[in-house]
Design brief:
single chain; alpha+beta; two-stranded antiparallel ribbon; 17 helices; 7% strand; disordered C terminus
C-alpha cells in the first residue's frame, strides 16, 4: 500500500546555503548588472514564474532594511551586500569578462530556490498546525473522520473545510439510512448498518434528495487503477480525493467505510495485509466478516493467509489480518500524515516528532518504522560516503557512523520481529485480479447468502420511508 521509493529527501547541505539567499538581495544584484555599460540581455528578462499553488514570497516576514530601495543607484547597503557575497564565496556579478546572460540565469535559479524554500516553510507550517490539532485528540476515543481530515487537509494550500468534508461523508450516510428504511431494517443494528454500507461498494444506489425532492442515482464507489500507490501524486491516496471523484484504492476506500460507519453509529474495523487494507466487522453473535472494499466482495482469512503468504510472526504479533484497536488506528492515521509530510517536505525535526508520537502510541506501526529505517539508511549512506566509504566490518572504528548503524539495525530487527512484508506493484495487481477468480466468487456468494439470511431475520419492522419521485 505504501511505497517508500517516491519519498523526497533533502539531506545535502545545499539547503542550508539557500537560507542566505533573500529575494531582495537578488533585486539589488539585478540593479548592479543593469548599471553596467552593456544591458541588451536584461531587456528580455522575464520574472521567474513559480507554481501557482505556491504563495508569493512577500507573504512571509520581510528581511529588508527600513526604507530600502533596490532601484536607488547609490544604495547604502550595496557595499555591505557585496562584502557579504565575497565572504560567502559568491561571484561578484557584473565584473569584466563575466557573461551576463549566465549571471541572470544563476539569479533566476537562486530566486526560484528561495521561493521554493519559502513555500516549504509555508507548507511545513500548515502540517505543524494540523499535527498540533491531531495531538489534542485522545488516542483511545477519537473521531476517525476528524483524524483523516487533519491528516489529509495539511497537504493542500486550499483544502476543503471540515464542514465540507463532513457533509460529503454525511451524504453517503444518508443514502445508507434510506436503504435501511426502505428495507425495514433498524438503523441501530450493526449487522444491518454494515450490510447497507456495503451496497455503496457493490452497486449504484437511489438517493432521494429532501431539498430538491427528486431522486438521484449515486454511482457505486470504484477502484481507481490510475496511480493506485500514489507514486505520481500522493493525493490519490486521500479520502478527500475519493469523495470528490467517487474512486479510490485499498487505502482510501476502507477509511471512507469507517467514516460512514461512524456517522451512523455503527462499528467496523480496519485490518491490514501486506501492502493492503480491508474491513472487518462482527455481528451480534460474534460472527466475523471480512469485506473487500476494492470490489465489494467478502473474502476469507484462510484465502488471505494463503494468497499473501503472511508469516507466523506477523500473525502472532497481530501485524496482519487482525482488527486494529483504537490506538493502532490513531497511529495509522498519523502515519498517513507522516507519509504526506515526508513526501512533500522531507525528513526534518517535525517528521521526527511525528515518528516519536506514532511509536509512543503503537510501537509496531509499519509506517513510522519503515520511514525511520529509510531515513537512518540515507543518513548512514551519506555520512559513510563523506568518511571515504569504509566497509561495514570497519564501521566500529568510526564511532559516529557506528552509532547510526546500530540504530538502523535496531529498527530492522523490529520490522523483522513484527513480520512486515510488502508486494511489488506488479505482484499486487495480479493479486487483486485473483479476487475475481471463480473460487473467490463462490466464496463471496456463500458469505453474502449467510449475511442475507441474517438480514431477513432482522426485517421485523415495516418500512417507514418512501422515495417516490416528484410527479
Amino acid at each position: 500500500m505504501h511505497n517508500l521509493n517516491h519519498l523526497h529527501y533533502r539531506l545535502s547541505p545545499s539547503g542550508v546555503g539557500r537560507k542566505m539567499c533573500c529575494t531582495w538581495l537578488f533585486l539589488c544584484i539585478l540593479q548592479f548588472i543593469v548599471s553596467q555599460p552593456s544591458t541588451p540581455v536584461f531587456k528580455s528578462f522575464q520574472p521567474v514564474t513559480t507554481d501557482k499553488s505556491m504563495p508569493p514570497v512577500n507573504n512571509f516576514p520581510s528581511q529588508r532594511p527600513p526604507n530600502y530601495n533596490p532601484l536607488q543607484p547609490n544604495d547604502p547597503y550595496r557595499e555591505q551586500n557585496l562584502k557579504l557575497m565575497r565572504q560567502g564565496g559568491m561571484t561578484i556579478l557584473g565584473a569584466p569578462g563575466v557573461n551576463q546572460q549566465k549571471q541572470l540565469e544563476e539569479i533566476r535559479r537562486e530566486i526560484q530556490m528561495a521561493d521554493e524554500d519559502a513555500y516549504m516553510r509555508y507548507s511545513s507550517g500548515r502540517y505543524q498546525q494540523q499535527f498540533s490539532r491531531f495531538l489534542q485528540m485522545n488516542p483511545d476515543d477519537f473521531s476517525i473522520s476528524k483524524a483523516i481530515y487533519l491528516s489529509e487537509s495539511a497537504w493542500y494550500d486550499n483544502p476543503p473545510s471540515w464542514q465540507q468534508f463532513q457533509a460529503s461523508i454525511q451524504k453517503y450516510a444518508n443514502v445508507v439510512k434510506q436503504m435501511l428504511q426502505r428495507e425495514g431494517l433498524s438503523v441501530k443494528n450493526n449487522a444491518a448498518i454494515n450490510y447497507a454500507i456495503q451496497k455503496l461498494y457493490k452497486q449504484d444506489n437511489i438517493y432521494y434528495d429532501p431539498i430538491t425532492k427528486k431522486q438521484q442515482t449515486l454511482a457505486k464507489l470504484e477502484y481507481d487503477f490510475n496511480d493506485p500507490m500514489g507514486n505520481n501524486d500522493w493525493r490519490n491516496m486521500f479520502v478527500i480525493k475519493l469523495l470528490d471523484k467517487g474512486k479510490g484504492q485499498c487505502h482510501s476506500l476502507p477509511l471512507n467505510y469507517l467514516c460512514v460507519t461512524e456517522q451512523l453509529g455503527g462499528k467496523a474495523y480496519l485490518a491490514l495485509s501486506p501492502s493492503h487494507s480491508y474491513i472487518q466487522y462482527f455481528d451480534e453473535k460474534g460472527r466475523h466478516y471480512n469485506f473487500e472494499t476494492t470490489n465489494g466482495h467478502f473474502i476469507s482469512e484462510a484465502w488471505l493467509m494463503q494468497s499473501t503468504g503472511v508469516s507466523a510472526a506477523a500473525l502472532k504479533q497481530g501485524t496482519y489480518l487482525d482488527s486494529l484497536s483504537g490506538r493502532r488506528l490513531y497511529a495509522h492515521c498519523l502515519g498517513d500524515m507522516l507519509y504526506g509530510y515526508v513526501t512533500k517536505i522531507g525528513y526534518d525535526g517535525v517528521a521526527d516528532q511525528m515518528v516519536k508520537k506514532i511509536l509512543e502510541t503503537d510501537s509496531s506501526n509499519i509506517s513510522a518504522l519503515s520511514i525511520q529505517a529509510w531515513y537512518l539508511r540515507e543518513v548512514l549512506n551519506e555520512k559513510a560516503y563523506m568518511a571515504g566509504s569504509p566497509p561495514p566490518e570497519q564501521l566500529i572504528n568510526y564511532p559516529a557512523l557506528y552509532a547510526i548503524y546500530k540504530d538502523l539495525m535496531t529498527v530492522y530487527a523490529k520490522l523483522d520481529q513484527i513480520g512486515v512484508q510488502s508486494m511489488p506493484p506488479d505482484v499486487y495487481r495480479q493479486w487483486l485480479k485473483s479476487m475475481d477468480e471463480d473460487n473467490q466468487k463462490e466464496q463471496d456468494r456463500q458469505e453474502y447468502e449467510k449475511l442475507l439470511r441474517q438480514i431477513q431475520k432482522l426485517k421485523k419492522i415495516k418500512p417507514t420511508f418512501t422515495n417516490t419521485p416528484e410527479k
